[in-house]
Design goal:
Elements lengths: L20 H4 L2 E7 L12 E6 L7 E11 L1 H9 L8 E2 L3 E9 L11 E5 L11 E5 L3 E3 L6 H5 L2 H14 L12 E5 L4 H12 L3 E6 L2 H10 L3 E4 L4 H7 L5 E6 L7 H7 E9 L18 E4 L4 H4 L7 H15 L6 E5 L4 H12 L6 E5 L3
Parallel strand pairs: 9-10, 9-12, 10-11, 12-13, 13-14, 15-16
Antiparallel strand pairs: 1-2, 1-4, 3-5, 3-7, 3-16, 5-6, 6-8
Helix pairs in contact: 4-5, 4-10
Length: 365
């Protein structure tokens, strides 16, 4: 994939090309960057042209209708740089329409409306066309828009895997006697986790720090909201919550490490999605026989695990829950069109730490 800035985006009609004119165009629009830069730098994100991607046997080619941004986008922008002059293209949440299918694909056809979270080891989806392994994809529910669908995949997959795989919560069991503490309920993952935990019958305790975020998490279904500016266990004791069965940390593993040790019940389970900059002392959990695990939604696709297709199946479950009204999309802010200026605005909102729900971009100029 090469970036070429001097050539026109679409080739002139050519009798030598046997395909539609747009299929012959070697370049497509995208937003990318070459060097890691702060958002104050005008080259932090750029409108670029890249080579039109081609699907491999397991892939589908998708015309991107809407994307959303996640903290991983800002982290990647700060850590990754271009190789061989090829721009880095971010974007891991997509909703779009299938334009072409690989030879080994049987579950999708041209014209299908789909949504998915990308493989972080491949180019991202901040581009007009994107290729993705079909095993990571599900059909978009007809009942929701492309913008709403783009707000869902990465956070829904992360929340589902964390709750029902890492924490071992049984989705269809009676869990009314169980309590979960979700640290950071107003973000994209927290918003999904609250809804899914309630769907599983748990009592949900979460954290927020402002009136607007408190209102949001209650709308998502939280039973109790703690103020993250103050010690959590002290507030839990005041509210007669006691210790909790599960903890899902979406904010900071290291900052809440000792607080989680205080708040968790013996034989409880903890999962976190936030890497720690410092070593963590697991001995704090030994007396209570507590289990701790990490959740990274990209693991299956990064390592091509034997069960990689499970992510597409999970998204299928999410799609059914959306159709039934058991989940609500977490789209909070919509920007249009998809271009460098609007993606910079989205990254700036994420880096401010005040973003609620999901930020979605749609349509190309």
């Amino acid at each position: 994939m090469k970036a070429i800035h001097t050539l026109p985006l679409v080739l002139a009609a050519n009798s030598l090309c046997p395909l539609q004119a747009e299929e012959c165009a070697p370049l497509i629009r995208a937003v990318g960057f070459y060097q890691s830069r702060p958002l104050t730098d005008p080259t932090a994100l750029l409108n670029v042209e890249i080579e039109r991607p081609s699907p491999k046997p397991h892939d589908i080619l998708v015309r991107v209708k809407a994307i959303s941004v996640n903290p991983v986008d800002t982290k990647h922008r700060k850590r990754v740089e271009s190789k061989d002059g090829v721009p880095v293209v971010l974007g891991w949440d997509v909703a779009g329409i299938v334009e072409k299918v690989g030879g080994d694909v049987s579950d999708f056809k041209v014209g299908d409306e789909v949504f998915y979270a990308c493989d972080i080891t491949r180019p991202g989806a901040n581009s007009e066309l994107h290729v993705v392994d079909s095993r990571l994809v599900a059909l978009k529910p007809k009942e929701i828009s492309f913008e709403e669908a783009a707000s869902m995949p990465l956070t829904a997959l992360t929340a589902f895997e964390a709750l029902f795989e890492q924490l071992g919560i049984r989705v269809n069991a009676r869990n009314e006697s169980k309590t979960i503490l979700i640290i950071g309920g107003a973000g994209g993952v927290g918003s999904m986790a609250i809804q899914m935990a309630k769907r599983a019958g748990l009592r949900v305790v979460t954290t927020a720090g402002r009136a607007v975020t408190t209102e949001w998490v209650k709308r998502m279904g939280a039973d109790v909201v703690l103020d993250h500016h103050h010690p959590l266990k002290f507030q839990m004791d005041e509210l007669n919550i006691g210790e909790v069965d599960y903890i899902f940390n979406t904010v900071s593993t290291s900052d809440y490490w000792t607080q989680m040790a205080d708040a968790i019940r013996p034989f409880g389970r903890i999962v976190s999605i936030v890497e720690s900059e410092h070593p963590l002392d697991l001995r704090l959990f030994m007396k209570k026989s507590v289990s701790f695990s990490w959740e990274l939604m990209f693991t299956r696709s990064m390592y091509s695990t034997p069960d990689m297709e499970r992510q597409g199946k999970i998204l299928g479950i999410v799609a059914e829950w959306l159709r039934r009204g058991w989940l609500q999309p977490t789209l909070r802010r919509h920007l249009s069109p998809i271009n460098a200026d609007n993606l910079i605005k989205a990254h700036r909102l994420l880096e401010s730490g005040t973003s609620i729900g999901k930020i979605v971009l749609s349509d190309w100029e």
